[in-house]
Amino acid sequence: MKLSTRHLLSINDLSRKDVLTILQTAVSFKEISERPIKKVPTLRGRTVINCFFEDSTRTRLSFELAEKRLSADSSNIGKSGSAMAKKGETLLDTIRNIEAMRPDILVIRHSAAGAPAQAATATRAHVINAGDGMHEHPTQALLDLMTINEVKGRIKGLKVGIAGDILHSRVARSNMLLLKKMGIDVIVAGPPTLLPVGVEEVFGVRTCYDIREALPELDVLMLLRVQRERMGEQFFPSAREYARYFGVSNESLKGCKDDLVIMHPGPVNRGVEITADVADGPRSVILGQVTNGVAVRMAVMYLLLGDGPSE
Amino acid sequence: MTSYFITNGRVIDPAAKMDAKLSVHIEHGKIVSVSQSKKAPDGATVIDAAGCIVAPGFIDMHAHLRDPGFEYKEDIESGTRAAAAGGFTTVCCMPNTNPVNDSTSVTEYILERARQVGAIEVRPIGAITKGLAGENLAEIGDMAKAGAVAITDDGRPVMNSGIMRRAMEYAKAFDLVVISHCEDLHLAAGGVMHEGNVSTELGLGGIPAAAEEAMVARDIMLAELTGARLHIAHASSAGTVRLIRDAKERGVAVTAEVTPHHLTLTEEAVSDYDPNAKVNPPLRTEADKRALIKALADGTIDVIATDHAPHDITDKEVGFEDASFGMIGFETMLPLALALVHDRALTMKRLVEALTSSPARILGLEGKGTLAPGKQADIVIFEPEHSWTVQAERFASKARNTPFDGLRARGKVRYTISRGKIVYSS
Ligand SMILES: [Zn+2]
Ligand SMILES: [Zn+2]
Predict the structure, then answer these.
(1) What is the pLDDT of residues A31-55, one digit of tens each?
(2) Are the C-beta atoms of residues B125 and B102 closer than 8 Å to each other?
(3) What is the whole-number distance in angstroms between the Cα of residue B137 and the centre of ligand 1?
(4) CB B53 within 8 A of CB B353
(5) pTM for the whole thing?
(6) Parallel, antiparallel, or unpaired for β B379-389 and B408-418?
């Protein structure tokens, strides 16, 4: 089995068939994670380098565990932990240096949109985008879809709401692309300051300001982290006001479907976009998302390398 | 001194309302005659311009030569050679050098350096405010006397409207045009490309057209208030065109320029995060592009200027968001502008006018932008139909930051003659 794409830079790289293959493979890899000895020899002898030019704890740990469970040799380079990526050396210089060490997969997280795509031009390795600026975070969207499929038992015909800081969110962009690709109806919500221009046209989604308006029809509600720093940039006046008009509490869930599921890519900002009773309540599948993250990343790495040797 | 007889070409000199098959005779660095004669005078070298347009040498009223201070990107020698290869005989250089051209010493340095190593002539443009800081007026009078032909804080708009007003008033005393890089920095904050569908898709910070238009509107109002001459640099949006058209109809002393890249490309050029398509103002929409072409054709926009902005590869290879703004323009200007003529969106006469007599008039460049007998022999000879492939590695510029590398181009400069001497031929 193999994917139709060489890199995973954007959800746009994947066909519907690729997505289904990843989900199927992830389910079987998830089973490995439930075993006492969580390791298979699948990627023995393969080298994966995690290039986290932007700080990350959770995504990086998830990738590292996925690599270890597949028996790959993995190394990490970080923002400051490496002599590389210093001032004066360009991103491409750094990638060319890494390339000289013949890696099989580069996992790249960068604060600048497009950085993984640029890196892919300078390496023969497969590049996985682990989050680039405000652009995309495709493995997050895949793990979200895996979770939805797991909980709902289906994908097509569902209605998913995404609420919060859509403008700055790479998770929202990847999810809008992936969910639409797989036949899911998507409604995005947030204060007008945090909805990107043209979002309806570009992603084929519906928008509203207050997610409560759309709540009764939703099967899944995905909440996004709203960073408090956005207040300083005048996107909204206060966390209190955000929570009051745009956040979700148990109170606002009145009138929703009985089986509405709450998701959040984390880290959760309790009391802003979501109250603690919702985040930790019975509808929440937030921790299930984290578990699926490892399985999805194992699947993507396995499928990118395919059965044969990498070119 | 050499004498040339340029014959068999179509001579276009909009300043003299001339467009005919004529011969141009030059000697001692000056134009001797433009006539129907087919016979070369004794001692003159014949240049056969069959299939070519013979026009006054192009004037680029907006370029960055990076000298002094950023010679690793470009310098006066390489920049003027690149300009000569693009058909230019006069280039006006922007003051955002290091040190900033906000004083006679820098203005004089540029002029002196150009005299020593320049392939063509350079006319410096001085800063509006000291250090381009937007706070205190630079010594505008001194710079004008030293040879500055306009003032601008290009790249760093004068956000303080009170200072912009004073600059406009003061510039009147020296009959200098004030060139405005229109950008409301608060509206543009965090932006790296046009704000629209493509920026939303790519997750890149957007610069709305309103960031430009708000400042165009402000500066037009200040031009009305002060009676100063205002020139809008690199117009990029349909809204800017509307504001300029309206101001001109009301008789405001406003002129404008547009770059070849804004006439040619849209936000789509950024789609693969090509840092060479990162410019300020950003490439906008198809509708904006069409409005700019129409405005250039009907004279609402007066001038084509390159905004030649050379950068070293390290300024561009750092990822789209961190990359410097700007692309080089000298050596691709002609085929890009000619594409509009080939598409019948622009007449050849308008094209030549926008590159010669219009900038000369706006900047008050005496004797430039025309082929009138007695004037300095600054001439370009270009072949509109010649097809070639743009190869950035062969540019005379030190820089390679162009999105047009590999482009199949139509229209090539054959000769550039500056002060009676051939400074470029192909
Ligand atoms: Zn500018
Ligand atoms: Zn400029």
Answers:
(1) 988 888 888 999 999 999 999 999 8
(2) no
(3) 19
(4) no
(5) 0.93
(6) antiparallel
The ipTM assigned to this model is 0.90
Contact (CB<8Å) B321/A114: yes
Output b/e per residue, A258-268; b: 16+ Cβ within 10 A: eebbbbbbbeb
CA–CA dist A179, A186 (Å, integer): 7
Residue type, B267: E
- The dotted CATH code for A138-290 is 3.40.50.1370
Cα(B85) to centroid(ligand 1), Å: 23
Residue A69 appears among annotated catalytic residues: no
A114 vs B320: CB contact, 8 Å cut-off? yes
Question: B4-53+375-425: what fold?
Answer: Urease, subunit C; domain 1 (2.30.40)
Domain A11-136+292-305, CATH 3.40.50.1370 — does that match?
Answer: yes
Q: Which of residues 310-329 of B touch A (CB under 8 A)?
A: 313-314, 317-322
Distance B155 CA to ligand 1 centre (A): 4
Task: Tell me which chain A residues have a C-beta less than 8 angstroms from the C-beta of B320.
Answer: 112-114, 118
Q: Which residues of chain B, if any, have pLDDT below 50? A: none
Between chain A and chain B, how many beta carbons pairs sit less than 8 Å apart?
A: 65
CA B64 / ligand 2 centre spacing (Å): 6
A110 interfaces chain B, CB cutoff of 8 Å = yes
B12 beta partners: B19
Window 270-299 of A: residues touching B by CB (8 A cutoff) are none
Amino acid at B217: A
- Domain ranges in chain B are 4-53+375-425, 58-363
| Residues in a beta bridge with B410 | B387
CA dihedral in degrees (B290, B296, B302, B306; nearest 10)? 70
User: Rounded CA gap, B225 and A244, in Å?
Assistant: 47
B201 touching A, CB under 8 A?
A: yes
- Which residues lie closer than 8 Å to A133 by C-beta, 6 or more apart? A110, A111, A112, A113, A114, A115, A170, B203, B204, B321
Q: What is the pLDDT of residues A57-107, one digit of tens each?
A: 899 999 999 999 999 999 999 876 444 444 557 788 889 999 999 999 999
Name, in order, each residue with C-beta under 8 angstroms of B321's C-beta and a sequence gap of 6 or more.
A111, A112, A113, A114, A133, B192, B204, B205
Residue A118 has pLDDT above 60, yes or no: yes
Contact B204 A114 (CB under 8 A): yes
Note whether B4-53+375-425 and B58-363 share their fold. no
Note the CATH number of domain B58-363.
3.20.20.140
Measure the CA–CA gap between B281 and B216, rounded to whole angstroms: 13
Q: Which entry of B13, B67, B302, B307 is annotated as an active-site residue? A: B307
Q: Tell me if A11-136+292-305 shares its fold with A138-290.
A: yes
Q: Name the minimum distance, in Å, from the CA of A18 to any CA of chain B.
A: 21
CA A136 to chain B, closest CA, distance in angstroms equals 8
Domain ranges in chain A? Answer: 11-136+292-305, 138-290
Q: Say if residues B29 and B376 touch (Cβ distance below 8 Å).
A: yes
- Give the model's confidence band at A308: pLDDT under 50 very low, under 70 low, under 90 confident, else very high: very low
% of chain B surpassing 70 pLDDT:
100
Question: Is it true that the peptide bond before B56 is cis, omega within 30 degrees of 0?
Answer: no
C-beta atoms of B314 and A88 within 8 A: yes
